[in-house]
């Protein structure tokens, strides 16, 4: 029976490994051969008896009985034909084994149940008629009621048990096959889930590496760039103006300590994320969005110790200090705030701060001595920031290496919060960086 309810003959079945023809296994072939031999012997004996009653050639009846009994070997491939043959030879009072095994095989097969019911009914009627005629015309002198009761019991007893047993075995076989298919399906689903989980874990690792690289770039690049600028200035004025050189060295040390503190904070967050809870709490994986909105797989820590990446991030209140650091490094920076200042979401303020920080760092790297302007605009539904600088001053000998990841990191941060980012050279020979983010309330 196919999934659409259509009958699929047994011949369409593919034998399993070790089988032959329509037998799934070799032991099935041996079983059918033994049953066919027993049926052939029975039909041979009953054929000789039928030849005596019908006054026909015993040899012809014996050959006919052998062929009829041996037909049981075809029961798995053509169960309907075997049952029809057993019904056809019922008047000759032969084929008991053929009828019993044939009805069992028919009921256990995938033949539609209506066909099984019709053939079982035909077998009952045929056995009933032959039994009544045999008892009533055999000279036993029994009452007709007794003859009828005996015939009914004989017909039902010859038909019902093999049919019921076949129905039970067939249902059990289908249940086992259904459970096996379901188990195979679940195994395939688990395999797919494992593959997807592995892909998600690998993607999360890549996202985490990208996030860490971006954070380290933001934390280190700005401070180190300012330190390099101050070191160059210190080298230039060390012999000419010792007092100014001393102030620059002190500022250089302060910046180095700030950079170290920020590095320690970053490493502390990483250690907290990767440390298993010692309190016995369950460890679970959770794909949580980080500052950039990228899913990051972290260990689920207790609520009291779960770090929030936005809690300790820089905010817009620290923007003046950031500008003063660039001014102390010799850059002419102007900070302009437009609109009513208000508190924003921590992640929005952090992204705006990082954009300004990276933009000023790029000015130190690529346009040393150029004047810069930072414009921060508060609007009704958004906040915008613009950092632009003029052309670099000539004669500067400060050379800072660039990894080419600054603009990419700024774009990723801004777009992760649903904002817009643009950058490019200006007509005056300078450079501009602008970002616009939704003004999420803090």
From TrEMBL:
Catalytic activity: ATP + protein L-histidine = ADP + protein N-phospho-L-histidine
Name by which UniProt lists this protein: histidine kinase
InterPro entries: DUF7134 (IPR055558), HATPase_C_sf (IPR036890), Sensor_HK_TwoCompSys (IPR050482), Sig_transdc_His_kin_sub3_dim/P (IPR011712)
GO molecular function, one term: protein dimerization activity
Enzyme Commission (EC) number: 2.7.13.3
GO cellular component: membrane
Enzyme class: transferase
Residue ranges of every copy of the DUF7134 domain listed in the record: 21-171
The keyword Secreted belongs to this UniProt entry's keyword annotation: no
């Amino acid at each position: 029976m196919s999934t659409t309810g259509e009958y699929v003959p047994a011949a369409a079945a593919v034998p399993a490994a070790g089988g032959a023809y329509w037998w799934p296994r070799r032991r099935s072939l041996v079983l059918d051969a033994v049953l066919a031999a027993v049926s052939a012997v029975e039909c041979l004996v009953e054929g000789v008896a039928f030849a005596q009653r019908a006054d026909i050639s015993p040899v012809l009846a014996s050959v006919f009985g052998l062929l009829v009994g041996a037909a049981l070997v075809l029961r798995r491939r053509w169960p309907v034909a075997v049952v029809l043959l057993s019904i056809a030879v019922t008047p000759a009072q032969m084929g008991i084994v053929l009828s019993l095994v044939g009805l069992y095989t028919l009921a256990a097969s995938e033949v539609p149940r209506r066909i099984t019911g019709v053939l079982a009914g035909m077998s009952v009627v045929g056995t009933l008629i032959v039994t009544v005629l045999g008892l009533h015309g055999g000279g036993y002198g029994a009452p007709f009621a007794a003859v009828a009761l005996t015939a009914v019991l004989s017909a039902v007893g010859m038909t019902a048990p093999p049919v019921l047993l076949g129905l039970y075995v067939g249902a059990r076989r289908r249940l086992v096959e259904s459970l096996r298919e379901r188990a195979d399906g679940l195994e395939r689903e688990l395999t797919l889930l494992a593959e997807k989980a592995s892909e998600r874990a690998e993607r999360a690792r890549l996202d985490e590496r990208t996030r860490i690289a971006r954070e380290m770039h933001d934390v280190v690049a700005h401070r180190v760039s300012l330190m390099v600028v101050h070191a160059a200035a210190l080298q230039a004025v060390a012999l000419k103006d010792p007092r100014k050189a001393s102030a620059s060295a002190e500022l250089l040390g302060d910046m180095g300590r700030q950079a170290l503190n920020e590095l320690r904070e970053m490493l502390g967050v990483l250690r907290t994320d990767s440390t298993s809870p010692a309190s016995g709490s369950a460890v679970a994986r959770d794909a949580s969005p980080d500052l950039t909105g990228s899913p990051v797989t972290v260990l689920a820590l207790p609520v009291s110790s779960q770090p929030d990446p936005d809690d300790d991030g820089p905010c817009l209140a620290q923007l003046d200090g950031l500008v003063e650091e660039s001014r102390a490094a010799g850059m002419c920076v102007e900070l302009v705030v437009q609109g009513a200042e208000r508190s924003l979401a921590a992640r929005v303020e952090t992204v705006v701060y990082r954009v300004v920080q990276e933009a000023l760092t790029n000015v130190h790297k690529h346009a040393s001595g150029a004047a810069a302007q930072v414009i921060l605009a508060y609007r009704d539904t958004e906040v915008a920031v613009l950092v632009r600088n003029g052309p670099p001053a000539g004669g500067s000998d400060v050379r800072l290496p660039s990894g080419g990841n600054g603009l990419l990191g700024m774009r990723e941060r801004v777009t992760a919060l649903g904002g817009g980012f643009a950058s490019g050279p200006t007509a005056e020979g300078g450079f501009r960086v602008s970002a616009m983010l939704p003004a999420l309330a803090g």
